Amino acid sequence: MKTYLLYIMGFVALMAVLAISIHAHLIWPSIALVVMLLWLCVSLYGRVGRLLYAYHEMEKENERLHTRLAEAERQLQYLRQLTENVDTALFVCSTDGRIDWMNHAAKELTHGTSLPSPVLQAIANHTEVVDGCALSTVLLRIDGQRRLVVALKDVSMLMQRQEMEAWQQLIRVLTHEIMNSLTPIISISETLTNENEAFAVINRRCHVLLDFVESYRQLTRIKTPERTTFPVSELFEHITGLYPQVQTQGEGLLTADRSQLEQVIINLIRNAYESGATEVEIIINNDNEIRVKDNGSGMSIDVLGHAFIPFFTTKPTGTGIGLSLCRQIILKHGGTITVDSQEGEGTTFTIKL
Length: 353
Fold this sequence. Notes:
There is one protein chain. The protein has helices spanning 2-23, 27-85, 104-107, 117-124, 156-192, 197-217, 232-242, 258-274, 301-305, 322-332, and strands spanning 89-93, 99-102, 129-130, 133-142, 145-154, 228-231, 247-249, 253-256, 280-284, 289-294, 336-342, 346-352. It is an alpha+beta fold. The strands form three sheets. A five-stranded antiparallel β-sheet has the order 2-1-5-4-3. A hairpin with a 5-residue loop joins strand 1 (89-93) and strand 2.
């Protein structure tokens, strides 16, 4: 700016001297002053041109910065929406566990200002799973301070699926080998039954074993659910037709494979009565949550931990596939089934579709 001020002052001074020279009829000085004025104008024009060019370039750069800033703002909004709506709990906290920020899923896990103590203990012990959730931590430096980014992802359903797939594979192998052995034994024993009573016994026991194996093969033959939307009242009507004494509560619509869902609920009702229950109640709310409550003998802590494991049973004639079959059906619906029971106080199964 000072340079341009000097140019202007010089231009004014030269114009004044030129006017005096012309007035005094000084030809050669006047010519020299004109030349100097022309040089000064050309020089000033060049500087102004460069200034205007720099100004336009600055405007273009400013537009590019605004574009990048708007894009960064869009990305920031996208990340905010993403972090708020994912089902993974995200925390940003200090190294001592004090929470600076958390998303919606994280707020459902804690209502305080610090990480839950099991999470803190898991971080300290470098544990990767806590309470059925996969734990991941990243240490960052934000604004010169050390911060932990903690992610908790519920993997319990995934673990259940993998467990059931492992059981299914085992059952397929076992039933295949047993069936391959039983088939020729049954065939031979049938041809010899009339000749020897011992072969008749073998034949009967083989058929019993065959029925036993067939019951387990059900676990590997569950069809993909054919979902339809139907009134809750229709489900209740069919169930109370089989068990009139069952109490029902709820209304609205359900979306599921009706026959498979009926199979699950009927199995739970049958288990309840076999455990000594005199009252069974089915409650369905508007969140596609189904509860089957009974006042039976309940389960001990040890039995509760093995309730859904295939082949596990406390009944003298049980096969141990009923609850496992129920869980597989619900998992194929993308839902969960849990059990809450206390010995002598009854049992409640909760299904979430």
